[in-house]
C-alpha cells in the first residue's frame, strides 16, 4: 500500500510538473504574441506618419486669421483633444457590448488613431512655434514621431537630437510608448470602468497633458513669426 501511495504521489507530482511546464510555455507564447502585437502597432504608426497631412505655418495662419501663436496652439490642442476623445468614446462604447470579441483589434485601432491625431498636433505645434524639423517630409515625420514618443519638442539647433530620432533608438522608444499607451487603456476594458464617457475623458486628458509638455519645451526654442519668413513658404 505504501509503495502504491508513493507511486500515486510521484504520478501526481509528475502531472503537476507537466502542467506547470505547459502553463509556463503557454505564458511565454502569450507574451511573445503580445510583444508581436505591440511591435506591429508601432510599425503601423511609423508607416502611417509620413502620410498624415500636416499644415504648415502659412496654411494655419490662413485658416485661423488674427490669432497669435498661443491662441493658435490652443485651437490645435482643443481640436486634437476632441479628436482623441471621439476615438476613445467609440472604443469605450464598443466594449459595452455583451461579448466584444474584437476588443484587441479595437484597442489596436484606438492606439493607432490616437497616435495619428497626436502626431499631427505635435508636427503643427512645431510649425506654430517656428521650430520645424529639418529634412524631407519623411525625415520630419520620423523626427516628430520621436518627439511624440518622448513627449518633448525637437531641438533643431542640435542636429544630433534630430538624427537620433531617425535611428533604431527612436523605434525602440516608440514601441515602448505604444506599450505604455496600451497599458494605459487596459483599465477601460474592465466591465466596472468601461464606457464611452470614460474612454473619451481618458484620451482628452492625456492628449492635453502631452500638449502641455511639448508646448513648454517649444516655447524655450520659439522663433517669432516675423523672423523665419522661409517657414511660411
- Secondary structure category: mainly alpha
User: Which residues form runs of ≥5 with pLDDT under 50?
Assistant: 99-103, 187-194, 228-233
Q: Which band does the percent of strand residues land in? A: under 5%
Radius of gyration: 24 Å
Number of helices: 8
Report how far apart the termini are. 93 Å
What is the helix content?
over 70%
- Shape descriptor: globular
| Average pLDDT for all residues | 74
Instruction: Compute the number of strand runs.
Output: 0
| Major sheet | none
Listing every helix as H and every strand as E from the N terminus to the C terminus, the arrangement reads HHHHHHHH
Task: Please tag this protein with its features.
mainly alpha, globular
Please give a quick description of this structure.
The protein has helices at residues 2-48, 57-63, 69-94, 103-128, 137-150, 159-164, 168-185, 196-219. It is mainly α and 233 residues long.
Protein model, in words:
The protein has 233 residues and is mostly helical. It is 72% helix and 0% strand. The protein has eight helices and no strands. Helix 1 packs parallel to helix 4 and helix 4 runs parallel beside helix 8. The longest helix has 47 residues. It starts with a helix and ends in a 14-residue tail after the last helix. 33% of the residues are buried. The C terminus is likely disordered.
Amino acid at each position: 500500500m505504501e509503495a502504491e501511495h508513493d507511486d500515486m504521489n510521484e504520478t501526481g507530482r509528475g502531472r503537476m510538473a507537466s502542467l506547470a511546464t505547459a502553463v509556463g510555455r503557454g505564458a511565454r507564447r502569450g507574451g511573445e504574441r503580445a510583444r508581436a502585437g505591440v511591435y506591429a502597432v508601432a510599425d503601423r504608426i511609423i508607416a502611417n506618419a509620413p502620410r498624415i497631412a500636416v499644415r504648415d505655418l502659412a496654411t494655419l495662419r490662413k485658416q485661423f486669421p488674427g490669432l497669435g501663436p498661443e491662441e493658435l496652439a490652443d485651437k490645435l490642442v482643443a481640436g486634437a483633444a476632441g479628436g482623441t476623445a471621439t476615438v476613445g468614446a467609440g472604443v469605450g462604447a464598443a466594449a459595452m457590448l455583451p461579448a466584444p470579441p474584437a476588443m484587441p483589434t479595437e484597442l489596436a485601432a484606438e492606439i493607432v488613431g490616437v497616435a495619428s491625431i497626436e502626431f499631427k498636433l505635435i508636427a503643427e505645434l512645431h510649425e506654430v512655434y517656428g521650430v520645424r524639423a529639418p529634412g524631407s517630409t519623411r525625415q520630419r515625420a520620423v523626427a516628430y514621431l520621436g518627439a511624440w514618443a518622448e513627449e518633448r519638442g525637437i531641438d533643431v539647433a542640435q542636429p544630433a537630437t534630430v538624427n537620433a530620432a531617425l535611428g533604431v533608438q527612436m523605434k525602440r522608444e516608440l514601441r515602448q510608448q505604444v506599450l505604455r499607451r496600451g497599458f494605459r487603456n487596459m483599465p477601460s476594458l474592465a466591465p466596472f470602468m468601461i464606457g464611452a464617457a470614460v474612454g473619451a475623458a481618458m484620451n482628452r486628458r492625456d492628449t492635453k497633458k502631452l500638449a502641455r509638455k511639448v508646448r513648454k519645451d517649444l516655447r524655450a526654442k520659439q522663433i517669432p513669426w516675423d523672423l523665419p519668413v522661409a517657414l511660411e513658404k
